[in-house]
Amino acid sequence: MAQADIGGAMIEAGVLDLLYRERAKALSAREWKFRLMGYGYAIKDVQGTQVVTRLPQGVELGVLPAEFA
């Protein structure tokens, strides 16, 4: 499983697994992002890259791996 990195922080393997599972279930990127909100996560665009954040504080967890693009 790939690890993403932003500012020295790594996205945990469990979170990446959740992202993969939910992306496989979703029919579109919009639906996927909506499903992630239910788990307390969000995807935001930062300078052309997608970053995984934890809601509601918006704490950045790391850059989304390229496989999700």
Shape: globular
Task: Give the percentage of residues in beta strands.
Answer: 25-35%
The rounded distance between the terminal residues' Cα atoms is: 16 Å
Widest sheet: strand order?
A: 3-4-5
Structural class: alpha+beta
3D structure, described in words:
This protein has 69 residues and is an alpha+beta fold. 33% of the residues lie in helices and 30% in strands. It has helices at residues 13-25, 29-38, and strands spanning 5-6, 9-10, 41-46, 49-54, 59-63. Strands 3-4-5 form a three-stranded antiparallel beta sheet. α1 packs across α2. The model is unreliable at 1-5 (pLDDT under 50).
Write the layout of secondary structure elements.
Elements: E1 5-6, E2 9-10, H1 13-25, H2 29-38, E3 41-46, E4 49-54, E5 59-63
Helix pairs in contact: 1-2
Summarize the structure.
With 69 residues, the protein is of the alpha+beta class.
Keywords:
69 residues, alpha+beta, three-stranded antiparallel sheet, two-stranded antiparallel sheet, globular
